[in-house]
Structures are given as structure tokens and as C-alpha cells.
Amino acid sequence: MDVSQLLSSINVITSSGQLATADPQQRAQLSRACDQLKSLCESPLEKTIQLLFAGHQAIAIRLAIDLKLFDVITSRSSEASDGIFTLQHVLADVKADPKLILRIMKFLASMGILEQPSTDTFKPTAFASAYVSASPLSAAVIHFTHFLTFISRLPEYFDTKGWKNPENLEDSPFSFALGTQSRYFDYLSSKPYYQTAFNTVMASSYRRSEKNWFDFFPVEEKLKLENPSDVLLVDVGGCQGEDLYTFKKKFPNLPGRLVLQDLPHVIEAGKIPNGIEGQGYDFFDEQPVKNARAYYLRNVLHDWPDKQVVEILSRVREAMNSQSLLLVEEKAMPETDVPLMAAVGDMSMMVSFSAAERTKKEYECLFNQAGLRLTGFWKPEDASEMQPALFEATLF
């Protein structure tokens, strides 16, 4: 097929409506194929322009979100049979300069989020409703555009620090950007708007794995207890207990106690599900639950530099006996061909905490430093690049 035939085929597909019936997996495959095709077609100049001005587009969406413009657009367009609304319709509900609102909406139209049939009329595309206030995607825009504030200072940070890899929690790129020794989570707690956005993003279904760890880990073979009064599983840093609750629903007859641990204020503020014991605990302190069959940490270690990771693991190791397992669920970075979103996650951990997304070898090294031996590495065969792995470790 020559280029003209390929172009003709693409135009036929995009104008035929065939993609409307594609399922999510097919859409993802097509999107990746389109990305590969685009990378072969664009010049270095075109690639650079796309990268440089991506921030402008993100900020344009952020401005509209802060103004609750998408809420108004969705409401107003639903009142018209053709979905078209005017600038005057928006002005009644958005308190901002009309000229500014018009500029923002024109920008959104250039991005394909709105259509602009005439000078002062607009129509939302399918993307517009994704950014209403109740959407987790709007929270993601707030969170990540705010995070650009810190990322933009990386060149200065590394120039000042002699281009050394960040390894000190008290001297992170985040603290440098803010000119303080405040830690990222402490800072967020003082900024309700950004804390709310962060919490929404962290709790979003978009972040949940395709499969739970106990869907591909041999639970009934590995987690056996004879005495139901013994502790079966401790979820260390488990927030509100969603993972333990889902685990209990899948294995209702598995003997043993389930213990949820997090900071005292998290446990006190939450509604702990029935059948799960809540316990206030800081994972840098001595582990109060001794000799449990398994200790589980999900997305904990990537928030910390190597030194603190070893400390956290050591506290668990001190509480384990020869029958205990440590189960750690984290993304395992590939040694080569790192996916873009994995690289983005790694940079985010570096900026926020002087931490990292790590490879299997790097985690194994940290386990060894804490006196633990990696005995298993579990991941579904059909797992996507975003599916975390489950590391299994025991005492040496």
C-alpha cells in the first residue's frame, strides 16, 4: 500500500463512524498504532513544538475547570436541541471578563474540546463533559498542572546540586522549588483545593489495577492458618481498607484476622469495614503485630528514597517469623523500553519525595539490605504496562 492509499484508507475510517463500535481494548490498540504512525511522520521540529506547547493546552483546560466553565457548558448545551450555546449563555453563570472567557473557549475549540460554528456560538464535543467538577479527570488536571510548578524548577535544582540523583527526603526537588524543608504531603494538607484534587486522583478507578493481587497470587496455597485467632494479613498503610475488604469478600472462609494499619488520624476518620481490625500505626515505628502470616504494602515504597524504604522493610522484618511472608505491590519498571507513563511516574516520585519507581532488581537489592529474601514475583500473563507486580519476600 502506497502513501496515497494509506491516506485514503485512514480518511474512510475516520469519516465512517466505524470506531464508535470499538471496545476499550480495541481503542487502546488503535491509539498505540496511531502514535507509532505519527512518530514516523512528524519531523523533529513538529515533535518539539508538540512537546513545548502541551503545557499551554493543559493550562487552558485548567483555567476552564477553575471557572467551572465545563459545568456551565454541559448544562447550557443540554438545553438546546442542537447542543449549541452562545457566549451570552455562559456569561450568566461564569464570573469572569467576557473577553477572557471567549479566548479560553476559542483555545478549547482549537483543541477539539469544543466546536465553534460561528463567532460567538459553541458546541461541546464528547470531551467537554469529562472535565465537569464531579469528574476525576478534572481533579487530575488540577493536580498535575499544579505539579508543573515544581517540575519546572528541575533544571535549577540539578544545576545547584551538581546534577546528582536526589536521594535525600529533606532535600527533594519539591522542597527546593518551594524554598522550604516541608514535605510534599505536609504541604498538600495546608492547601485544601489541591489536597482534594490529590485525594480524588488517588482514589480514582483510573488508578486501580486491572486485577487485584489476590487474583493472580495463590492465596489459598500460600496463606494458610490453622488458628483463626492468629493474624492472617496486615495491610500496612492501607488507608480506608478497600483492599482488605475486597480480599475478605473473595475469601470469606479463609481463617485468620485481618488488620488494617495507617496513621491514627486516617484510621479514626475512616469507616473500617466489618471484620477488619483498624490500628493506628506509623510504619517507621516498631511493628506491633508480630508473627502474622503475611504483611502487605501497596504503593507505599515508591513514595520513599532508598534509605527510608530499607527502614520500612526492616520494621516488617523484625516482626516476621519463619512462616511469615511480606507481600509488596508496586510497579516494576522494565530495564529497557520504559513506557512513557512509567517514566512520568518515576519523575513525579523523584520530584515529590526524592524517590523512584524501581526495577525488580532494585527492589530485590532493597529487600536484601533489610534482611529479606525475594522468593516470588507475581504478575498476570496478560498484564498491561500499568499493572503492578506483587513481590513476595521471606526471612533469610
Automatic annotation (TrEMBL):
Transmembrane segments: none annotated. The active site is at 302 (proton acceptor). PROSITE patterns: SAM_OMT_II (PS51683). Pfam families: Dimerisation, Methyltransf_2. The lineage of its organism: Eukaryota, Fungi, Dikarya, Ascomycota, Pezizomycotina. Residues 59-133 form the O-methyltransferase dimerisation domain. It comes from the Eukaryota. GO terms for molecular function: O-methyltransferase activity; protein dimerization activity. This is O-methyltransferase domain-containing protein. Keywords: Methyltransferase, S-adenosyl-L-methionine, Transferase. GO terms for biological process: methylation; secondary metabolite biosynthetic process. Residues 171-372 form the O-methyltransferase C-terminal domain. The keyword Transcription does not apply.
